Every structure is written in structure tokens, then in C-alpha cells.
């Protein structure tokens, strides 16, 4: 089976090298149409991006983004943006707003002696640049693109990813990187779920102690903004602007009247006595005033915080008994947000909340997530447009034990497209289905999941779902999933990104230092840390080092550090070897002896972290669960680690002693190999 798969991969990668007619290059999402020619276009040492004089203003933003991306990939090449007519080797942009043969986000890519991008809109031209980057990424040394003509266009208008930042904080830099990652795969919509709360049973059944967060700076209600991580208005505006330079629309979501504990903590008098403090009391006029004021702060004035056309108002999972009041609240919130010139999105709930109170549907879009809450055909009859977000297909809830930890990608690849909502299958020509979205929900607050762990789940899903949201359910035209899965590993994350911490080399040994005859490996606690050539390494890895600690090292003495994580000789006050990342502190049940040389080997993957001492296995941090006194429910305790390598030692609290040698491998070595290191 493995041999057959290898031959299949090779045939797809290299067919165009031997055939007279070049086969379609592999990209994600798949090109809609391809007509092969012979020969190759080759990227020159000076790359001219040529724009028609009349259209320069329309394309400036996207062409500049493309130029920045090329510079990130090929830093030694000259990148120039010019106007006029193309010459051999150039990349030429031509936009014709009146084109009848090219869709709004579509493009035609003519690859000859120079490369021509024809598009109806600047955004369509930009998507062509993502295709070019992906082709080049698979042949980084030859810099060749097979000659031919590609005609490409998306089947669906909305190709979205939803991220819950309310229950887990993600840094603004992480979100900015995700804009670039989504864009690389032609995903054009990034919904950011800005507020939410944990489950009361994990906080002693006490709403006042239950975790909640509202992640955006708010002046109207100063107590609203989360203290443990939030975004300033400027940061969020800049994020949206960045998205617009990459073809990605940021859709902010403020969720109410449920999932609203952060709001009731700021304004306690609007909490529901009947349904709990995570529910707003929607019978009170004060509740309407507060919710309207929150939205107003981000929507008012000539320069609003929410700069894009659409805003998501939540309206998810409110108590069924309050259907009429819920419908009234929903209708009011829709109309209030629309009064600022915005279009509204909301979570589908009106089958769950049946009633007589009308709720506006014209120009309103529902995320159709669970058919029991909003039956899709019924919602379409009411006039709503939909984004297919079926929980049973597309919900990731890391390490929760329900929904998916990792999506079933083969099943999605073979059977799902946005016209599939739950168990219902609609025509792909249904104009009320705007597209699809997959989501990460961080329900279990405090389970130890990191930003990197989320990416480990999102990235492979993104590759499959970007394809299905772009081309639709054309299963007959798709290569086998196993072939797609193999080839997809060549595409990467896009220019300048390495969110998964991948380190490649000629072999699995990717970093090595020997300090045995050098003072560089000696640390007094005062000297500058030693900087390596790597910041970190992600899953899977093996890191082996010899260490001789001096006596009397302090608590939290640092051996390795990077911006994201620290490996400590003495974790907190335990005296045990451990590591910290994102506010979580973990330790092995092992103390490194003083004044003797010991070989420490640590391996890590997406499930956990292992320790070996002098080649012998000691402990695996994986599968632990957290218990709570007042409930039988448990949550995971995730003890993964992106190994920090930027510094040996630390400027503030370095360990005292010596490092003898360091070896880093980009795979988890077997016990037998570890014993021989």
C-alpha cells in the first residue's frame, strides 16, 4: 500500500516533466480548470511586478502584499513594482471590471514567457498570487512554473474560520499570522468570537468564580475588558486592515444574550436570576441599553472600530422557555447594528426559539450550526442566508472528549461541502448558502491547550476545507485523499510563517553544539545567555543535552528559553525539572543531581512530553485529567511543549552550572536510539 501511494505521489508531482502537455500543478484549493502547454516559466533574479497604468491604484495594495511575500521567500532577489507593458520573465496584472468570462473572485493565469494575471477584480488577481506562491513553494530551488492556462474561481462566496478567543486568549500577533495563513489557502473570512465563559461546574458551581472574558478594549464599561489578555481598539483596527490587504475579512462577534458572563460581571443588574449569570435578563430595558451601548462603542462615528461590512451578534443557545423574549431581543439587536450601516450575522436559533414575534431576515446571515436549533430549509423559507457550519462535521473542541479533537478529514474530503448542513444536502446552486465555516471552541478553560496545539488541529483541517469551500462537492474530479494528504505536506503555511515550528535538515539531526572544550557552555547566573540558531522546534522532536548543575540553584532556574516557553532546572519550588508555557507550569517527577554530569533527553509530540535520563525512560506527561470536588466531570490536563531553543540560560534567572552538548532531532527517536545518544 505504501509503495503504491509513493508511486501515486511521484506521478502527480513529476508528470509534467515528462509529458508534452504540462499537467495541472498541485495547489490547494485545486484549480478549477487547466490547459497545459510545454516548457516552464522561470522566476528571474529581478522580479518585476507590472501593473497597467490605468489600474495601478486598484491593485496597489494587493501587489504590494505579493511583493512583500516574494521578498520573504526570496530575500536576495530584487522585487520591483512597475507600470506599463510586460517583458519576458515579468508578472503582469490586468484587471477588467467589465469582464463577462471571469467571476468576481476568479482569475485567469496565463503562464508563458511572462506570467499574466487576468481578473475582474483586484481580489481575484490577488488569489492568483497565492496560486503562484504555492507552486513555487513545491520547487524552491528550480523556481519554475509549468506553462499553461489556469482558470480559477470559488464556488462559494464565504470561506470562513471561526476562532473562540473568549475562553482562551490568543495574542494579536497570532491572529495576524492567521490572517496570512488563511489567505494563503484562499480562505477569505475570519470570524473572531470575542467573549465567552467557562462552565460553572468547573468553578465550584459559583458564577462569580467562573472564568469569563471580553477581549476588546471597552471604555463604556471599563470592567468589561479582560484583565488576562485583550486587544486594544487600535490593535483590532490594524488587524482588520491587515486582513483587507490579504483578502481576508475580519468578522467580529459579540455574543449575547447567552455566553454573556463577562457582560453581567461588568453590569451585574442585567444578569438573569432565572437562568444563571451567563444569561442576560432580556426582560429588562437595561439589558437592551447595555448591549446597544457595547455595540455602539465599536460602530459609531466616521472611524468605527469595526471597519468591515459585517458584524456578528451571537444569539446562541438561550433558554428555550424565553423564545418570544429572545426573538424580540434578536430582532432589536439586528436592527440596532444595521442602523450603523452594517450587515448582520448571527447563530441559527429560531427553530429552537419558535414563536410569533417576527425577527428580521432580509440581508441577515445565519451560521447554520445545528439543525435542531435552526432547521436550514425552514430558515431559507424565512429568507435568511446561511453559512454552513455544521457541528457534527466541523467543530473542533480541543481535548474536550466531545465533538472533534481533530476533524475527520478523509470523511470531509470525500463527502462534505457547504451544501451539506448536518444530514441535509441542498443543491450546490442554492443561492442562500453563502459558503462554509469551521470552528475552534475552547470550552474547557484551563486545560493546558496552547496556541500551537490549536494550530496543530487547524492546519490540516484548513488544507482540506479550503479545497471544499472553493471547488464544492466535485468528488469525482478529486484525487484520492491519501494522495492529496501526501502532496499537501509540500505546500506549507505561506511566506514568513512557521506556526508549527517545523525544522528541516539534511537528516533528522537539525541542531548540534558541543561545549565540552568551550566556556560558552558555562553559566554563572550573571552572564549573557547563549543564543542558538533556532527559536524553537515543534512536534515531533527529540532534544538531548548533558548538564552539570552547580549547587544552590534558585527556584525557576532557566535552562532553555524562547518567547513562548521555558525549560527550568527547578520548576517553581519543587526542585524538579519542568517547563512553563502560556501560564501553565508542569514538572517531571525528577530532580537533576548537582555537581555531576547527567544526560537529559526530552521528546515531544502533539499528545505529550517524555523524559529520559542517561538514556533510560523516566516519565511521560500525557493523558492526565483534572478533577473537581463538586462534580464527576473532568477536564484534560494537556502537557505538550514546543521546545524552546533560542537561548541556553536566561538574562534574569539562568541556571548555574554547565551544558556539555546539545543535539536536536526533528522526530521522536526510539528508546533504542535514545539509549545510544
Descriptive key words:
Hex-like_dom2; 7-stranded mixed sheet; 39 strands; signal; hydrolase; TIM Barrel; alpha/beta; 14 helices; 677 residues; 3 domains; Chitobiase, domain 2; Jelly Rolls; 8-stranded parallel beta barrel
Structure report:
Keywords: Glycosidase, Hydrolase, Signal. One of its GO terms (molecular function) is beta-N-acetylhexosaminidase activity. This is Hexosaminidase. InterPro entries: Beta_hexosaminidase_sua/sub, ConA-like_dom_sf, GH, GH20_Enzymes, Glyco_hydro_20_cat, Hex-like_dom2, HEX_bac_N. The protein is of the alpha/beta class. The protein has three domains: 151 residues, Chitobiase/beta-hexosaminidase domain 2-like (Chitobiase, domain 2), CATH 3.30.379; 331 residues, Glycosidases (TIM Barrel), CATH 3.20.20.80; 168 residues, Jelly Rolls (Sandwich). Helices cover 25% and strands 28% of the residues. It contains 14 helices and 39 strands. An eight-stranded parallel beta barrel has the order 8-9-12-15-16-17-18-22, surrounded by four helices. Strands 1-7-5-6-4-2-3 form a seven-stranded mixed β-sheet, covered by helices on one side. Strand 17, helix 9 and strand 18 form a beta-alpha-beta unit. Helix 4 packs parallel to helix 5. It is globular and about 75 Å long. About 1% of the residues have low confidence.
Amino acid at each position: 500500500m505504501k509503495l503504491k501511494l509513493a508511486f501515486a505521489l511521484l506521478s502527480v508531482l513529476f508528470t509534467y516533466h515528462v509529458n508534452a502537455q504540462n499537467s495541472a500543478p498541485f495547489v490547494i484549493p485545486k484549480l478549477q480548470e487547466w490547459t497545459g502547454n510545454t516548457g516552464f516559466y522561470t522566476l528571474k533574479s529581478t522580479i518585476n511586478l507590472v501593473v497597467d497604468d490605468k489600474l495601478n491604484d486598484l491593485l496597489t495594495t494587493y501587489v504590494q502584499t505579493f511583493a512583500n511575500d516574494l521578498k520573504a521567500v526570496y530575500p536576495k532577489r530584487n522585487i520591483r513594482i512597475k507600470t506599463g507593458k510586460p517583458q519576458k520573465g515579468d508578472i503582469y496584472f490586468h484587471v477588467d471590471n467589465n469582464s463577462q468570462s471571469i467571476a468576481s473572485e476568479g482569475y485567469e493565469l496565463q503562464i508563458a514567457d511572462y506570467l499574466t494575471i487576468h481578473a475582474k477584480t483586484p481580489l481575484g488577481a490577488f488569489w492568483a498570487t497565492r496560486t503562484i506562491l504555492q507552486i513555487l513553494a513545491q520547487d524552491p530551488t528550480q523556481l519554475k512554473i509549468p506553462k499553461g492556462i489556469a482558470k480559477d474561481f470559488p464556488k462559494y462566496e464565504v470561506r470562513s474560520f471561526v476562532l473562540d478567543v473568549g475562553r482562551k486568549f490568543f495574542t494579536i500577533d497570532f491572529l495576524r499570522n492567521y490572517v496570512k495563513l488563511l489567505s494563503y489557502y484562499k480562505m477569505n473570512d475570519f470570524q473572531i468570537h470575542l467573549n465567552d465563559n467557562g462552565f460553572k461546574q468547573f468553578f465550584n458551581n459559583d458564577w462569580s468564580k467562573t472564568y469569563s472574558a471580553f477581549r476588546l478594549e471597552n471604555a463604556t464599561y471599563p470592567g468589561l475588558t479582560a484583565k488576562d489578555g485583550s486587544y486594544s481598539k487600535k490593535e483590532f483596527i490594524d488587524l482588520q486592515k491587515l486582513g483587507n490587504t490579504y483578502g481576508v475579512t475580519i468578522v467580529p462577534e459579540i455574543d449575547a444574550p447567552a455566553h454573556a458572563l463577562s457582560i453581567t460581571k461588568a453590569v451585574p443588574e442585567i444578569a438573569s436570576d432565572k437562568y444563571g449569570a451567563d444569561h442576560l435578563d432580556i426582560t429588562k430595558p437595561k439589558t437592551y441599553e447595555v448591549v446597544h451601548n457595547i455595540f455602539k462603542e465599536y460602530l459609531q462615528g466616521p472611524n468605527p472600530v469595526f471597519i468591515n461590512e459585517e458584524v456578528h451578534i451571537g444569539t446562541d443557545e438561550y433558554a428555550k422557555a424565553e423564545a418570544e423574549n429572545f426573538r424580540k431581543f434578536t430582532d432589536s439587536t439586528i436592527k440596532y447594528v444595521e442602523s450603523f450601516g452594517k450587515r448582520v450575522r448571527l447563530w441559527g436559533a429560531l427553530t429552537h426559539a419558535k414563536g410569533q414575534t417576527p425577527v428580521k431576515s432580509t440581508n441577515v446571515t445565519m451560521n447554520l450550526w445545528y439543525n435542531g436549533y435552526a432547521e436550514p430549509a425552514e430558515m431559507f423559507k424565512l429568507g435568511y442566508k446561511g453559512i454552513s457550519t455544521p457541528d457534527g462535521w466541523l467543530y473542533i473542541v480541543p481535548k474536550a472528549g466531545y465533538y472533534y479533537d481533530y476533524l475527520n478529514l478523509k470523511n470531509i474530503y470525500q463527502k462534505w461541502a457547504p451544501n451539506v448542513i448536518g444530514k441535509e444536502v441542498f443543491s450546490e446552486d442554492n443561492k442562500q448558502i453563502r459558503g462554509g465555516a469551521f470552528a475552534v471552541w475552547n470550552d474547557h478553560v484551563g486545560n493546558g491547550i496552547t496556541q500551537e496545539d490549536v494550530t496543530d488541529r487547524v492546519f490540516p483541517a484548513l488544507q482540506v476545507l479550503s479545497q471544499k469551500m472553493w471547488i464544492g462537492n466535485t468528488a469525482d474530479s478529486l484525487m484520492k485523499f491519501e494522495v492529496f494528504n501526501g502532496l499537501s505536506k509540500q505546500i506549507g503555511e505561506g511566506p514568513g510563517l512557521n506556526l508549527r515550528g517545523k525544522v528541516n535538515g539534511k537528516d533528522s539531526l537539525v541542531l548540534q553544539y558541543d561545549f565540552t572544550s568551550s566556556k560558552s557552555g558555562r553559566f554563572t547566573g550573571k552572564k549573557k545567555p547563549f543564543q542558538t540558531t533556532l527559536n524553537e522546534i515543534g512536534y515531533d522532536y527529540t532534544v538531548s543535552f548533558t548538564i552539570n548543575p552547580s549547587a544552590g540553584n534558585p527556584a525557576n532556574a532557566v535552562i532553555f528559553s524562547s518567547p513562548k516557553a521555558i525549560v527550568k532546572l527547578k520548576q517553581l519550588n519543587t526542585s524538579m525539572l519542568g517547563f512553563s508555557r502560556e501560564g501553565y507550569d508542569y514538572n517531571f517527577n525528577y530532580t537533576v543531581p548537582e555537581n555531576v554530569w547527567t544526560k537529559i533527553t526530552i521528546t515531544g509530540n502533539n499528545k505529550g512530553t517524555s523524559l529520559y535520563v542517561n538514556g533510560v525512560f523516566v516519565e511521560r506527561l500525557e493523558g492526565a485529567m483534572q478533577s473537581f470536588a463538586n462534580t464527576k466531570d473532568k477536564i484534560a490536563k494537556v502537557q505538550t511543549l514546543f521546545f524552546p531553543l533560542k537561548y541556553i540560560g536566561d538574562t534574569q534567572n539562568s541556571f548555574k552550572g554547565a551544558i556539555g552538548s546539545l543535539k536536536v532531532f526533528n522526530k521522536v527517536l526510539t528508546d533504542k536510539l535514545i539509549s545510544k545518544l
